[in-house]
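Support reply, case 0932

Customer input (verbatim):
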Amino acid sequence: MIWWIVGTVIWIVVGTFNFIFVAKLPKIMFEEIEDRRAAAIMLSIAAPIGITLILGLTLLVLLNEILKTDRLWKRIEKD
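Our regenerated output:
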């Protein structure tokens, strides 16, 4: 149960980080930074990192649930 809470909190934090970088940062960067190429490079680095973190954490939670289910079935088979 504690892993669900920890995973959810981490997922929300990473999702917020990703939203800021993917949705809000380009507008800020392209308005305030004169060198548009530098802004595009910064965004092209930040967006995949955020998306990878969200997908990775989601896969970790799913893997944890699969392993828990597998252990449960092994315990049931023993009985």
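We compared this against your earlier run and they match. Two observations from our side: DSSP finds two helices and no strands in the chain. The radius of gyration is 19 Å. Please reopen the case if you see a mismatch on your end.
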